[in-house]
């Protein structure tokens, strides 16, 4: 499955990022859709804006926690932002302590250059997209 066409307002939000960051975040977007497609319990994702940044929600099934793409002040890294009330960042830190840079309980940071660590990042995205299933005792891993 390929990712859907960008909604106009989301496309504008991507266009507002500096080119290297935009390219990195679009790679992450593609991986979000590929990861969601690998989990039928996730269903179709909603792509919208939250706080002016591209956001991915599992509204159809309620299986996961929102994933938002953006940047943090005082950082030149691309940021994948998660709900700070979840345990997602703690889980990512446990599994991949040296693979990513993290900010508090809300962000996983990626350098804008170099190879995207797809395998590890797909695990993190999968955990976010199935977060509520895990909490409800679902079969998602």
From TrEMBL:
It comes from the Bacteria. SUPFAM superfamilies: YdhG-like. This is DUF1801 domain-containing protein.
């Amino acid at each position: 499955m390929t990712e859907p066409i960008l909604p106009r307002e989301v496309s504008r939000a991507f266009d507002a990022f500096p080119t290297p960051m935009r390219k990195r975040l679009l790679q992450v977007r593609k991986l979000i859709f590929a990861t969601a497609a690998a989990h039928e319990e996730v269903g179709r994702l909603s792509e919208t804006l939250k706080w002016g940044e591209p956001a991915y929600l599992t509204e159809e099934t309620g299986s996961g926690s929102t994933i938002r793409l953006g940047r943090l002040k005082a950082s030149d890294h691309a940021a994948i932002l998660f709900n700070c009330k979840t345990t997602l960042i703690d889980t990512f830190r446990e599994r991949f302590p040296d693979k990513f840079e993290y900010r508090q309980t809300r962000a996983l940071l990626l350098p804008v250059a170099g190879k995207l660590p797809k395998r590890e990042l797909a695990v993190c995205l999968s955990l976010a997209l199935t977060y509520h299933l895990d909490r409800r005792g679902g079969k998602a891993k």
